[in-house]
Specification:
Helix content: 55-70%
Radius of gyration: 33 Å
Number of strands: 6
Order of helices and strands: HHHHEEHEHHHHEEHHHHHEHHHHHHH
Largest sheet: 2 strands, antiparallel
Oligomer: single chain
């Protein structure tokens, strides 16, 4: 009993704190008692949510850094040729040019701060304004589309970084307006359900494929001149072709990443809270050891500079290169407008769908109309957070499914989301640590996020080929063309083509029904007029055979009854 006494006192103190907070204006505002929650329970829920989504800080920054950010050829170190220096060409952005690598390092530091600030602001607003236990951060899927489809690897795409950021901001503004006028949920319902489900599956496959590649993953798959892709995991690669030098499956970093994959997968399988981050932490810590084959700090100029920055551990970094890099002029081009539409489409589907599912999971829905408490403000918050994120240099902000971890812990109010925001605020002071997370630590999490997104595939109507074929085209083309936009456009196109006959037939039947009704109305009206004239004539003839004093009265009565008379 003595051993349990301290725990009893701790529990009593916790109950006292919970009762005190619930009785304050803050407790009443957040409806702690009404939602059968408590202050300390909300704090634990917020910590659980943050642990499950903290990976996004390094993962989002790493993915967006692959776009090159604001780095260009002008940042490359001049090439020494004999006794003179030459201006490097575009090839310097795909090699190991020291100047370009340093620019990428600055960009990654900026994007870590941008990710944390966007997540902090979005989560705080969600808790304070909408009073919902939902964590927000730049979304997976949209960031990959931004980095690899819009801007392209190290700026190799058709849209410059500044123009792409402007597109994200425009999409956020449009999304905010749609939310403000109430069109957001209606637009989400207009998209065929099976296409919506297939889009989530396709994005999952896209993320998994990204995590298996070398630049942003474990390097298990790579290019092949004969089969397009093949098994790699090379210890060395040809910088020009990407082909293995010395055989495949010999990369030490791949095997370390595979161990991290198994750690994270085991944690997820056993429902360990924060399981997504444990594999990343293990692989990252091992990769920090210098002098090994898996170190992220090799004995090079870039490696030494990275290690010097890493040793600071605590450092508040100020954004210097990515914030405010908006260029709206390029949005006039068709490919930029298509990208904005794609981002808006994904936002309407993913963000709105996730928020509804989280509200359903937490028991916030009203049951009748499918809405939930705080819905309108929640929609405004995540749309507004996207505008802020674009201004900082990052991508669209969305509600995270990892919020279920906090809801599972008992989080029912906005205090959970505010706790998540406080944790993201603390992460701003550990930039040197977060920038040193290697891609082979991040890749396994991308694969597992893709695996988790596969769960909705079972809800697709595979027995109906008119629904199954467009869904399959949508999910297959996203990874195979390495474009989320291509999958969406192809899926919708096939869906329309397969349903054109049905829609035309329905339209024809409706038009025929309307015409038949009009024809029947005209025929009935003509028949009524003809019967009225006949009845009046017959009545007059009959009146001639009866006395005059009764004739006029009978005629007037009959005419009035049939509506053919004047009075």
């Amino acid at each position: 009993m003595k051993r349990s006494s301290p725990w009893r006192k701790l529990a009593e103190a916790e109950d006292a704190v919970n009762r005190a907070v619930a009785a304050t204006r803050v407790g009443r505002y957040f409806k702690l008692e009404a939602r059968k929650s408590s202050f300390t329970k909300e704090l634990r829920a917020g910590a659980a949510t943050f642990l499950t989504m903290a990976y996004i800080i390094s993962v989002n920054a790493a993915i967006l850094t692959d776009s090159g950010g604001p780095c260009t050829v002008s940042d490359c170190t001049p090439v020494v040729v004999g006794n003179s220096t030459a201006v490097p060409g575009p090839e310097c952005t795909v090699g190991s040019n020291p100047g370009y690598e340093q620019c990428l390092g600055r960009t990654k530091s900026d994007l870590i701060v941008a990710t944390a600030v966007a997540a902090m602001a979005g989560s705080f607003a969600m808790g304070a304004l909408a009073n919902l236990p939902l964590g927000l951060a730049p979304g997976m899927g949209a960031n990959a589309y931004f980095a690899y489809n819009m801007v392209g690897f190290h700026g190799s795409g058709s849209i410059p970084y500044g123009t792409a950021l402007a597109g994200v901001m425009v999409e956020g503004i449009v999304f905010f307006i749609l939310s403000a006028v109430g069109l957001r949920s209606r637009l989400a319902r207009m998209i065929p359900r099976n296409i919506r489900l297939a889009t989530a599956v396709g994005i999952g496959l896209f993320l998994a494929f990204t995590g298996l590649q070398a630049h942003q993953g474990v390097g298990l798959v790579g290019a092949s001149p004969s089969t397009l892709v093949t098994l790699t995991a090379c210890s060395e690669t040809d910088p020009a072709t990407g082909a293995c030098l010395g055989g495949s499956m010999r990369s030490p970093t791949f095997w370390l990443g595979a161990v991290g994959f198994l750690i994270t997968a085991t944690c997820l399988a056993r429902d360990v809270k924060g399981g997504m981050i444990y594999g990343i932490v293990f692989v990252t810590v091992v990769s920090w050891i210098r002098g090994t084959a898996v170190t992220v700090f090799p004995d090079t100029a870039a490696g030494n500079a990275g290690f010097d920055y890493f040793k600071k551990v605590v450092d508040f970094h100020t954004i210097t290169t990515t914030a405010g890099r908006l260029s709206f002029g390029g949005l006039r081009h068709g490919n930029a407008l298509l990208a904005v539409f794609t981002l808006l489409y994904v936002d309407v589907l993913a963000t709105t769908g996730t928020m509804y599912s989280m509200a359903e999971y937490g028991g916030f829905t009203d049951g009748a109309g499918g809405g939930f408490d705080g819905e309108y403000r929640a929609f405004l918050v995540d749309a507004g957070s996207t505008v802020l994120s674009a201004a900082l240099g990052s991508t669209t902000v969305t509600t995270y499914v990892e919020s279920t971890a906090g809801i599972r812990e008992g989080g029912r109010t906005g205090v959970t989301a505010i706790t998540v925001a406080a944790c993201f605020l603390a992460s701003l002071f550990f930039g040197p640590v977060l920038t040193s997370v290697p891609p082979w630590a991040v890749g396994p999490s991308l694969v597992l996020v893709g695996a988790m997104m596969m769960r909705v595939a079972k809800d697709i109507e595979w027995a109906d080929m008119k629904e199954a074929i467009p869904a399959f085209v949508t999910m297959a083309l996203m990874p195979l063309t390495f474009s989320i936009a291509n999958g969406i456009i192809a899926g919708l196109g096939v869906y329309i083509a397969l349903h054109c006959y049905d829609w035309a037939r329905i339209a024809y039947l409706k038009a025929s029904k309307v015409l038949d009704e009009r024809r029947n109305q005209v025929a009935a009206s003509s028949a009524g007029e003809a019967s009225g004239i006949t009845a009046t004539t017959a009545t007059a003839a009959a009146a001639d055979e009866i006395p005059d004093e009764f004739g006029q009265g009978i005629i007037l009565c009959l005419e009035k009854e049939m509506g053919t008379g004047s009075g």
